[in-house]
Automatic annotation (TrEMBL):
Residue stretches making up the SET domain: 41-304
GO molecular function: protein-lysine N-methyltransferase activity
Gene3D superfamilies associated with the record: set domain protein methyltransferase, domain 1
Source organism: Spodoptera littoralis (Egyptian cotton leafworm)
Listed name of the protein: SET domain-containing protein
InterPro entries assigned to the protein according to its UniProt record, in alphabetical order: SET_dom (IPR001214), SET_dom_sf (IPR046341), SETD3_SETD6_MTase (IPR050600), SETD4_SET (IPR044429)
Source organism, top-level taxon: Eukaryota
Database matches in PANTHER family: SET DOMAIN-CONTAINING PROTEIN 4 (PTHR13271:SF151), UNCHARACTERIZED PUTATIVE METHYLTRANSFERASE (PTHR13271)
CDD domains per the UniProt record, alphabetical: SET_SETD4
């Protein structure tokens, strides 16, 4: 009886449900093993109450242990795209001079998303089919909120969504134009031309956005002379990759990990024209943990130190008690407020502000005013005070950035923003909640706490 009760208690306390026996996971694990992926045998997949699907350890993991090891040709990266001749035909067999007309016009993330749609629409005809089927069908980022709901969320969130929308729409239009001008008679490309849609591209864009990891292949592949490669389209770097199974490990700010690119042969600076899948069988991507994990707990990695605005808009989750959160203000917003108080900055003050870089990074966090915000207000209050050296005051702000006289200057502006956020919270309280909206509400409540603390100080 006692043993049974203990077993029941253990089962009750667990906040996860193992999912390694699900058909799609069995297929994924088999596919990964077949293609040379090695993972720590303590790991398995599970669905957790608070984070959804993630990675569980069945036995204690200690700092320094390797979590998994993937051959490079089992990841979707820049070399994968370059070696896919059928995909490259979209750009090369074209009535447009794509590499010239669209030179440095898109991000690598956008190209990755376009490629992912291409693979997805080819279904079981590529080796990536099982992996693609294991990916989420939708993502919990605010971008996918209905338009009528977006009207009631915070402007900072809306600003990020707007930028995402601009990037997605502009790159989608470029890819759509490239497809329309493609002259290949290949049936796969013809099918892709007729099937490519904004909805599919949005899904792919956020698959890349939420699941990619940093991977620098610059020491392995020569990406400098790429005038005749589709990489010529890219306006940034190519240092991201989709890594099956690794992309299922969830984020924790307390996690510490290290990745390594392991090259077993003398493979360096391979020309983009000499790439082969067989060549990269001897290159592996490995990740090690620097944390200890107890048995039957979730294993985490860190995606980087991030505030919740980035976490909910880029990855779709919220972290409580995140000390990196802040409420931002634009320089134009501050200047407009000052004018309502009959405070107009002179040209000399504006020049001083510009020369000291005080127009940006204006925010309030749990500690109070940001360094730049504090410096800006010092210029507002003390610039023409002959007994005060403003430059010295600004640099001393790194040590002491609390001055109630300065706080009082902008307190009415802070109250206005605080009331605006509270009004938005009241409006969304009448809307049926979902994970996405809940994350937005959590962030807006965090903003309220930060601003209320500032006003009370």
């Amino acid at each position: 009886m006692g043993r049974t009760r203990r077993k029941r208690k253990i089962k009750k306390d667990r906040d996860f449900c193992a999912c390694d026996n699900q058909e799609e996971i069995v297929l994924l694990n088999s596919w990964l093993s077949k293609h040379g992926m090695r993972r720590n045998d303590k790991l398995s997949l599970a669905v957790f109450n608070d984070t959804g699907r993630g990675v569980l350890t069945k036995r204690k993991i200690q700092s320094g242990e390797e979590l998994m090891n993937l051959p490079l040709n089992l990841t979707i990266n820049v070399t994968t795209i370059l070696m896919d001749n059928l995909f490259c035909k979209i750009f090369f067999e074209n009535s447009k001079r794509c590499l010239v007309d669209y030179k440095q016009s898109i991000s690598f993330q956008s190209l990755m998303a376009f490629y992912l749609v291409f693979l997805k629409l080819r279904s079981g005809k590529t080796k990536w089919h099982i992996y693609l089927e294991s990916l989420p069908k939708e993502y919990s980022v605010p971008y996918f909120l209905p338009n009528d709901v977006k009207l009631n969320i915070d402007n900072d969130i809306l600003s990020v969504i707007s930028k995402q929308k601009d990037i997605i729409d502009s790159s989608f239009n470029i890819f759509e134009n490239i497809l329309l001008s493609n002259v290949s008679d290949d049936s796969a490309i013809q099918e892709f031309k007729s099937s490519f849609s904004l909805a599919a591209y949005e899904w792919a864009y956020f698959t890349v956005n939420t699941r990619c990891v940093f991977m620098d292949l610059s020491k392995v592949v020569d990406l400098k002379n790429i005038e005749h490669s589709i990489i010529n389209l890219i306006c940034d770097n190519t240092k991201i990759s989709l890594c099956p199974y690794l992309d299922m490990i969830n984020h924790s700010p307390n996690a510490r990990n290290e990745t390594k690119l392991l090259v077993s042969k003398n493979i360096t600076n391979v020309n983009v024209n000499n790439l082969s899948e067989q060549l990269f069988c001897d290159v592996h991507f490995s990740i090690y943990t620097k944390n200890d994990f107890d048995p039957y707990t979730q294993v985490f990695i860190c995606y980087g130190d991030s505030h919740n605005l980035k976490l909910i808009t880029e990855y779709g989750f919220f972290l409580p008690d995140n000390d990196l959160d802040y409420v931002s203000f634009t320089f134009e917003e501050v200047i407009a407020f000052l004018k309502t108080k009959s405070i107009k900055l002179s040209q000399d003050q504006i020049s001083f502000i510009n020369n000291h870089g005080l127009r940006k990074d204006l925010y309030i966090d749990c500690k109070g005013l940001s360094y730049n915000f504090y410096g800006l207000l010092l210029v507002v209050k003390y610039y023409y005070d002959q007994s005060t050296d403003v430059s010295r005051l600004i640099y001393s702000a790194a040590i002491c950035s609390h001055d109630n006289n300065l706080n009082d200057i902008i307190a009415p502006m802070v109250r206005t923003k605080l009331n605006s956020i509270k009004e938005s919270l009241d409006k969304v309280s009448n809307i049926n909640k979902c994970v996405i909206l809940n994350n937005c509400v959590e962030l807006m409540c965090q903003y309220v706490r930060i601003l209320e603390k500032f006003i009370k100080c």
